[in-house]
């Protein structure tokens, strides 16, 4: 890694003409102003511009912003600000009626879920015969007769709990 970096720097130092031309061409591309025709009505044209053209314009504005801002034209300053912070892309203003649509779809989803719930309740079988109070009290009596859990359960002395009774 170090050897590669040392070789590369030695090669660049031996060709000062190439390094100087690169710096001059870079500064030359950033030094000229973006034309007013290109920046005119950028707010209205931005969304309809192809992505490649948007990227080219943004890159040229970004290169211009690297210089002192006193060198930028008013049109370039406005366009740079609008491209960076304007209401487009993720910051676009939502279309009219979007909140209404969200509320309606949410209510539709809730209504469909309630309908599905009650439809399954209506079409379900009746509850089993073991889910009534008499059956649960009979289960308590059976547990006492079998002496199930004689220390802490239903069969213990002084037990005051409900046991198997869960129905109202």
Walk me through what this model shows.
The protein is mostly helical and 168 residues long. It has three domains: 1-31; 32-93, no CATH class; 96-147, no CATH class. 62% of the residues lie in helices and 0% in strands. The protein has helices at 2-14, 16-31, 36-39, 42-45, 51-65, 74-85, 98-123, 133-146. Helix 5 packs across helix 6 (74-85). The model is unreliable at 16-29 (pLDDT under 50). GO terms for molecular function: oxidoreductase activity. It comes from Morchella conica CCBAS932. Pathway: Energy metabolism; oxidative phosphorylation. Belongs to the cytochrome c oxidase IV family. This is Cytochrome c oxidase polypeptide V.
Notable characteristics:
0% strand, 168 residues, mainly alpha, 3 domains
Tell me briefly what this model is.
Belongs to the cytochrome c oxidase IV family. The chain is mainly α and 168 residues long.
Task: State the share of residues found in helices, binned by percent.
Answer: 55-70%
Number of helices: 8
Radius of gyration: 40 Å
Largest sheet: none
Stretches with pLDDT under 50, minimum 5 residues: 16-29
Following the backbone from N to C, one meets helices and strands in this order, namely: HHHHHHHH
Q: What's the assembly state of these chains?
A: single chain
Query: What distance lies between the first and last C-alpha atoms, to the nearest angstrom?
Result: 80 Å
Number of domains: 3
Query: Structural class, from secondary structure content?
Result: mainly alpha
Overall, the morphology is elongated
Strand content: under 5%
Beta strand count: 0
Q: Mean of the pLDDT scores?
A: 82
